[in-house]
Amino acid sequence: MARPVVGIIGNAHLVNDEYPAHMAGAMNCQAIAEVSGAVPMIVPSCPSLIDIDDLMSVCDGFLFTGGRPNVHPEEYGEDETEAHGAFDRSRDRVALPLIRACVERGQPVFGVCRGFQEVNVAMGGTLYPEIRDLPGRMNHRMPPDGTIEEKFELRHTVSFTDGGPFHQLMGAREVMTNTLHGQGIKAAGERVVIDGVAPDGTPEAIYIKDAPGFCLSVQWHPEYRAAHDPVSRPLFGAFGEAAKAWSEGERPQILKSA
User: Whole-angstrom Cα distance, residue 155 to residue 90?
Assistant: First the structure.
């Protein structure tokens, strides 16, 4: 039987600062292929190139990845400031309506880093432009120097709600994760449940209450060494099972709320 197809939402990129391209990280593609057991398909984040309904008919699930640009604050009713950084309005116009459509239909969604923030904004939530500027918060940003291994090293714990979906999935109340983000959730969107937090209280894991299908998101980057990391494997594995079920016409709720 053919493997399910997972659309990986891409990011706009300039090759050699001049040639426009649609890009997705190799780690994301490898995680989908090797751990989720699905065919990775890079989706250009350009609304003039794709139709949401057509896209949903082709793919069995969607991975909303990280990316340098941030969700534009106009998407959650705030003004743009220098602290908000760079933006990708084309990705906003693809990702946000696609998330809402998938949640309503029950089509599997897995959000990572920017994708985690997109899920919250799509459901009506807001974001802080810079977590490290908040009193009592740690610096969650990627270390500016060092090797890839040093940038993605495990840096803090994430504690899950007792009996919640992430606790069920991991079989543990607390795990260690990397951290490579500047922004974070300010107010949770409608039906967005914060199910995991960092030691400083920063939301790190969310799900959608009463979602008819798989819709989990994490603020860290589980795609790094996903086949070998004990926290990443259950996430991508469960997402792959959900995509497989969707491809076979099943519509189960993969994990139950606490």
Answer: 32
Cα separation, 42 vs 49, in Å, equals 13
Per-residue pLDDT of 25-72, as tens digits, reads 999 999 999 999 999 999 999 999 999 999 999 999 999 999 889 999
Which residue ranges make up each domain of the chain? 5-247
| 140 CA to centre of own chain | 16
Going by C-alpha positions, the residue among 217, 159, 157 that lies closest to residue 193 is 217
Half-sphere exposure of residue 65: CA atoms within 13 angstroms, side-chain side: 28
pTM here is 0.95
Q: What is the pLDDT of residues 104-131, one digit of tens each?
A: 999 999 999 999 999 999 999 999 999 9
Distances (CA, A) of 176 to 42, 193, 199, 220, 229: 29, 20, 11, 10, 10
How many angstroms separate the CA atoms of 200 and 194, rounded? 14
Q: How many helices (H) and strands (E) does the chain have?
A: 7, 13
**Which CB contacts under 8 angstroms, 24+ apart, belong to 221-225?**
221/27, 221/66, 221/112, 221/113, 221/152, 221/178, 221/180, 222/31, 222/112, 222/177, 223/25, 223/27, 223/28, 223/30, 223/31, 223/65, 223/112, 224/27, 224/152, 224/178, 225/152
- In the CATH hierarchy, which fold is given to the domain comprising 5-247? Rossmann fold (3.40.50)
